[in-house]
Amino acid sequence: MNSQHTLSAAQYRENLQPYVDAGMQRAAQLGNRGPAKFGGDGKLTADILQAFQRTGFYVFEGLVDQDEIELLRADMQSLLDRAPTDNGAATDRHGRPAFGQEFARPVYSMIRPLSDPWGGTGLLNGRHPTRMTQPEAASAAADKVVFLMSGMCQIMDSGLRLYGHPQLLSIAASINGDDFVPYNDAIFVKQPGTGGSVSWHQDGVTHWDSPDWDQGIHGFNFQVQLYDTSAHSCLWVVPGTHKQGKLDIKQLVADNGSECLPRAVPLHARAGDVTIVNRQALHCSFANTSPDQRISLTFGFHRRKSVLGACGALSESSEVRYDEERIDQRSQVISVAIDARAQFYTDEPRFVYQPMSGREDSLRFTPENWEAIIRDYNLKDLSI
After folding, report:
1. Do residues 132 and 288 make contact, with C-beta atoms less than 8 angstroms apart?
2. Which of 150, 259, 124 is nearest to 202 (CA)?
3. pLDDT tens digits for 58-104?
4. Exposure check for the chain: N or C terminus, fewer CB within 10 A?
């Protein structure tokens, strides 16, 4: 759908509709969505693991309770209302001090409405080699809109509690082993009629040429959906590409003559659904010209052996090598999150995180541990 002339948002959406309709039909045939199911060992059932391994993604329906979704929504709306007017701005649209200036890493990433900020650039190790169509937003749209937010565990208490969700952590252990470790987190914001696009890419950058390469070596991401997302606003994935190694994405798009790759399917979801995507799967999202509000709380996990000894990638310095100490420091966030959740949801079973077993008393959710472990925790992310 790349065009030499500027498309209005309405034209863009109309042109995309046949592709959306076909993608919905393909998605319905895949058999990789449903409620999370666990066996007697606390791990995902074999049928779910097989579907995830076959396609590279899964939609866990209704995994997060609606009461918790409402708390997350309320915190997010407050944060969006307090966003700066532009990257680096000190005030919000009301003229108040913008939120988040006390943290070492910026909380908000602002972009032009309906734009593609990474496509065709060298950002994030150049993993987004093509640029998506950038339709013209309505004249009433703001000059800049929130695209991405960082630091979920430090900017809202509900986000920290979500990070300790026992079923999500059980899924992580099922896929990456009981000694799994964290990756990073980000909140993707696609507001109606203004949300930007993310061009086709594979997330992993470190291990493509590793002698130990396999389909799971770069880990996976969860996306917790706070609102119903349609095929116009959600993530799109090409099934099975997580098994194919590093792809020549630029050539794939060129050969197709359009960014609408023919086998891709939408991960449409309802509020409270959680999507999971292998970080090697080819995926993108289109500019959100729909009336849907999409907010996806995104956080990932790795196999410990994939991270230990690796050097930083993406937004982390390549001069940093991930040793046991760095992995332990970042992993402590999981234990604090588990305790924060246990203090709030007192009747819920508590997940036992094996790498911190026996250290739980020193990793409680306290003001002291918030300052020592949670504040600026994302400076210690484990990106590969």
Report:
1. no
2. 124
3. 999 999 999 999 999 999 999 999 999 999 999 999 999 999 999 99
4. N
| Interior angle at CA 282, CA 165 and CA 116, nearest 5 | 90
Question: Are the CB atoms for 70 and 227 separated by under 8 Å?
Answer: no
* Exposure class string for 319-331: b at 16+ Cβ within 10 A, else e: eeebeeebbeebb
Collapsing DSSP to helix, strand or coil, 305 comes out as helix
d(CA 243, CA 248) in angstroms, rounded, equals 14
The H-or-E segment that residue 28 falls in is helix 9-28
- Residue 18's Cβ-count burial label (10 Å; 0-12, 13-18, 19+) is exposed
Residues linked to residue 222 through DSSP beta bridges, in sequence order? 276, 299
pLDDT average, residue stretch 106-125: 94
pTM over 0.90: yes
State residue 82 phi and psi, 5-degree precision: -105, 15
Which CATH architecture does the domain made up of 9-305 adopt?
A: Sandwich (2.60)
Helix (H, G, I), strand (E, B) or coil at 86: coil
Which 3 state secondary structure label does DSSP give 134?
Answer: coil
- Domain coordinates of the chain in residue numbers? 9-305
> Cα–Cα distance between 187 and 150 in angstroms, integer?
6
Q: Which two tokens stand for residue 81?
A: 């209302």
Report d(CA 134, CA 6) in Å as an integer: 8
